[in-house]
Amino acid sequence: MTCNSTPMLKMRGICKHFVGVQALQEVDFEVLPGEVHALVGENGAGKSTLMHILSGVYQPDGGRIDFNGENEVVFPDEQAAQRHGIAIVFQERSLFGPLSIAENIFAGRQPTGRLGLVDRTAMFEESRKLLAEVGIDVDPRLPVERLSPHQQQLVEVAKALSLHAHLIVFDEPTAALTETETDHLFAVIKKLKERQAAVVYISHRLEEIFLLANRVTVLKDGRHQATLSVSETSPRELITAMVGRELAAVSFDRSLLPGDQPPLLEVKKLSDASGNFPRRVQLKEIDFSVRAGEVVALAGLAGSGRTELALALFGARERTHGTIVVGGHCLQRGNFRGRSVADSIAAGIGYLPEDRKEAGLFLEKSIASNIASASLKQFGRVWTQDGKIAKVADDYRKSLKIASRGTEQPVVSLSGGNQQKVLLAKWLLVKPKVLIVDEPTRGVDVGAKAEIHRLLFELSRQGVGVIVISSDLPEVLAVADRVLVMAEGRLSGELSHEEATEERIIHLASQIEAA
User: Fold this and answer.
1) Cα–Cα distance, 202 to 93 (Å, whole number)
2) Residues 6+ apart with CB under 8 A from 390
């Protein structure tokens, strides 16, 4: 390791208690200048809480922080942490959609001229340089809401770089990025190392840890488990430290797949009406089917049209035309003609969106309220609902192993993996014929990932048609009975479980003309 041996950051004996939960207990953590220090652990292990304390979002109940030669530093808010030279790129984006990219990057810190007025020319020019540094070529005057989720994540990175910080925290930064964008981000992190900045890198993707990090610290249940040199450990050892046991490889008995079932979902000639989506991927003549009891994966590069297809099936993308048949019932024939999300749910289609916090959950509501939100008619009269909802929600909490104090706990206080389980419970309660899950394990730990894979497989074998959209090719290969590959709004190929490899999927995803 070429890092300076004097720590830039030392956190000693950090404690944090929330109502009913000891989130952190006597945690020690340090980072050297010029070091990438990875922080890993299962969802709920305390990683984000520790970083929220470092960045001034939370105040610790005990312990001390020494930073950059200053002892027992107190960060009463995020601005204080930023003034000390600490920046954080949160997993959940904190941008303001209607504002421009430049206004988001320099929010509250706009450059000014002699008269104290905002120097917009300087702000746009500096923003353009920062965007180029993270690898996106867009006009900084564009509103952030016009960007894709992965572009917005890179704007978050540019915002952190604009602070010229001594220490930058990256919390699951590649969860929404393409491979090319991830490469740009890694290049930025390597430049930060060369400048002797300190980097804290939080990720569930262990391959990234071994590619980037010098050392890795493991948290479990709010406690420090180990700090290890990356060169002297292995993925298996890290997983064991994270979950407290060796995690067996998950395999599924595909002999159970019913080969003679009629199609549960049939899609024919599904397309977008010309010109309706000038800035989005156009769907073009898509034909496919899903049988009861099988898992079909939609794979492809960013911008291939996978999520657009899911939204069209779910009734959230207007002005499509084509035919959609669910369980023998024709949901759409010809033009869209006002079909709604409610129509799709009534026909038996459920959808777990890519962004669970933005489009899938009511964050301030309880676990019970979220689980029941798509099925309120099941619970009878309003004044008799609460008790019934609480019982059903508690059953799902136990069966899906949702880590919480109870079903009245607000969803916003749960870890990412547990939020995803709540969203899954919501749709299991609907009892869909076809369940579409978009990036089902984004931002969840290795243990929760295996559990979600198993739940989806078991659900399919109970007769549900499951469609999985994933950018994680190992995940696609693990769960899919068939893989449908998309490129430029079209289906470019189909592979059986036995035929599918990462190389074949990438070839089909990137060579639409050959297909």
Assistant:
1) 15
2) 368, 407, 408
Supply the DSSP symbol for 486. E
126-134 long-range contacts (CB < 8 A, ≥24 apart) are 126/102, 126/162, 127/101, 127/102, 127/158, 127/162, 130/105, 130/158, 130/161, 130/162, 131/101, 131/155, 131/158, 133/158, 133/161, 133/188, 134/158, 134/161, 134/184, 134/185, 134/188
Placement of tokens 């006009």 in the chain: 139
Rounded distance, CA 108 to CA 324, Å?
Answer: 49
- Under 8 Å CB-to-CB from 256, ≥6 apart: which residues? 293, 461
- Distance of CA 479 to CAs 250, 310, 450, Å? 10, 18, 10
Contacts of residue 277, Cβ cutoff 8 Å, sequence gap at least 6? 308
For residue 427, the tally of other CB atoms under 10 A from its CB is 23
Residue 12 CB: number of other CB atoms within 10 A? 15
Q: Among all chains, which residue has been given the structure tokens 């610790």?
A: 60
Which H helix or E strand runs over 224?
strand 223-229
pTM above 0.70, yes or no: no
The pLDDT tens digits of the residues spanning 397-413 come to 988 888 888 899 999 88
Distance from C-alpha of 165 to C-alpha of 31, rounded to nearest angstrom? 14
Per DSSP, the three-state class of 472 is coil
Cβ pair 212, 36 in contact under 8 A: yes
pLDDT lower than 70: segments of the chain: 1-4, 20, 91-93, 244-260, 273-280, 336-338, 381-384, 511-515
Sheet with 167-171, edge to edge strand ranges: 86-89, 167-171, 198-202, 36-40, 215-220, 223-229
Number of Cβ within a 10 Å radius of residue 321: 16
How large is the greatest C-alpha to C-alpha distance in the chain, in angstroms? 76
CA distance 210 to 360: 33
Chain-centroid distance of CA 478 in Å reads 19
Which residues are registered as beta bridge partners of 271? Answer: 321
Integer Cα distance of 37 and 392 in angstroms: 42
- Under DSSP, the state recorded for 357 is I
| Cα(76)–Cα(187) distance, integer angstroms | 33
Smallest Cα–Cα separation from 105: which of 84, 68, 133, 80?
Answer: 133
DSSP string covering 228-292, please? EEGGG--HHHHHHHHHSS--PPP---GGGS-TTPPEEEEEEEEEEPTTS-TTSPPP-SEEEEEET
| 3-state DSSP percent of the chain in helix, strand and coil, to 5 | 35, 25, 40
Q: Which of 303, 333, 340, 334 is nearest to 318 (CA)?
A: 340
DSSP annotation of 273 = P
User: Mapping DSSP to helix (H, G, I), strand (E, B) and coil, where does residue 116 land?
Assistant: coil
| Interval 478-503: pLDDT, tens | 999 999 999 889 999 999 999 999 88
- The per-residue DSSP string of 382-426 comes to HHHHHHHHHHHHHHHHHHTT--SS-TTSBGGGS-HHHHHHHHHHH
In three-state secondary structure terms, 200 is strand
Beta bridge partner(s), residue 435: 350, 466
